[in-house]
């Protein structure tokens, strides 16, 4: 197994834990308050990671374009998290997470058109299965 695949699997496991733990933590507070607490921990842990793995020197490699793109990514992440936390506060975390994870379809389309990544039959079949699953779960 390739290193990026191992990292992706670790990410998958922790992302799965994240939603369930967050839903439990929102029992007495709004989604926005819960997100603020969570994001504060994320902020500290990411900076700790930068220093522990000595990636501080990478900041000198950033271009203005990199900073703009990463800032825009931060904006889209923030909007996604705000609405995700509002959704899990009032809805079923299992349904919300399934709908949210269908964002992979948007990711796939943008990766083909903007990043010129390879489109294969396996990706097409997997994407269609995700869309099918989303339709099965959301259509009454």
Q: How far is the first residue's CA from the last residue's CA?
A: 40 Å
Broad shape = globular
Give Rg in angstroms. Answer: 18 Å
Strand elements, count: 0
Helix content estimate: over 70%
Mean pLDDT: 94
Biggest beta sheet attributes = none
Structure description:
- With 140 residues, the protein is mostly helical.
- The protein folds into two domains: 3-91, no CATH class; 102-140, no CATH class.
- It is 79% helix and 0% strand.
- It contains six helices and no strands.
- Helix 2 (31-52) runs antiparallel to helix 3 and helix 3 packs antiparallel against helix 4.
- It starts with a helix and ends with a helix.
- The mean pLDDT is 94.
């Amino acid at each position: 197994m390739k290193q990026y695949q191992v990292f992706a699997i670790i990410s998958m496991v922790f992302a799965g834990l994240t939603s369930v733990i967050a839903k439990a933590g929102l029992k007495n507070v709004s989604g926005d308050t819960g997100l603020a607490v969570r994001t504060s921990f994320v902020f500290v842990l990411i900076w700790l990671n930068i220093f522990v793995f000595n990636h501080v020197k990478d900041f000198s490699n950033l271009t203005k374009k990199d900073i703009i793109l990463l800032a825009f990514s931060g904006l889209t992440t923030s909007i996604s998290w705000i609405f995700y936390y509002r959704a899990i506060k009032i809805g079923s975390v299992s349904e919300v997470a399934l709908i949210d994870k269908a964002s992979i379809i948007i990711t796939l389309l943008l990766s083909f058109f903007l990043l010129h990544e390879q489109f294969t039959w396996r990706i097409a079949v997997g994407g269609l299965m995700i869309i099918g699953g989303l339709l099965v779960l959301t259509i009454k």
